[in-house]
Amino acid sequence: MQEMKVSLKYVADEEYQAENESGNILNIDMLAKDDKKSFSPTQLLLAGITSCAAVDLVSMIKKRRKTLVDLTSEVTGKRREEQPRRFTDIHVHYKVVSPDAQLEEVEKLVDLAVEKYCSVAASISSEINLTHSVEIVKP
Q1: Fewer beta carbons under 10 A from the terminal one: N or C of the chain?
Q2: Mean pLDDT of the chain
Q3: Cα–Cα nearest to 131, from 97, 102, 105, 107
Q4: How far apart are CA 43 and CA 50, in angstroms?
Q5: What does the alpha-carbon distance between residue 83 and residue 14 come to, in Å, rounded to a whole number?
Q6: Are 100 and 67 in contact (CB under 8 A)?
Q7: 71-86 burial string, b = 16+ CB within 10 Å, else e?
Q8: What is the DSSP string of 55-109?
Q9: Cα–Cα separations (whole angstroms), residue 79 to 94, 121, 128
């Protein structure tokens, strides 16, 4: 079993600094929108889901010898109003720029990336409605 470790340090009220085993630093804050300097923990979760699945998606597109010009994504999350303000719905939308990838094929790859291979998505509660979509843009 692989073990990971992240250390957290208090910087100031509502501001923290995380450090991974390689010494990489990530600033985190819970500041109001207008004062925000860094990602919040919930934003990091959304970024973790979309980036984790993107790694597998890119790999699968390339293994199928399709040309990948660009890949972007947008992830949205809806949260409960009451505590704990957990996510109830998360939607990830990928935009794949490719001259030769077909929508149906990439949709299947996104399904695999998000639902089977993404360890972050697999680690969230099954009570969260996690959906995804994709569009193909021809350059």
Answers
A1: N
A2: 96
A3: 107
A4: 11
A5: 18
A6: yes
A7: eebebebeeeeeeeee
A8: HHHHHHHHHTT----EEEEEEEEEE-SSSS--EEEEEEEEEEE-SS--HHHHHHH
A9: 21, 16, 10
**Residues 91/131, Cβ–Cβ less than 8 Å:** yes
Q: Tokens standing for 57?
A: 């998606």
* Residue-level pLDDT at 130: 96
d(CA 47, CA 90): 11
Q: Which of 84, 83, 73 is nearest to 121 (CA)?
A: 73
Structure-token pair, residue 58: 């890119």
Q: What's the pLDDT score for residue 123?
A: 95
Q: pTM score > 0.85 for this model?
A: yes
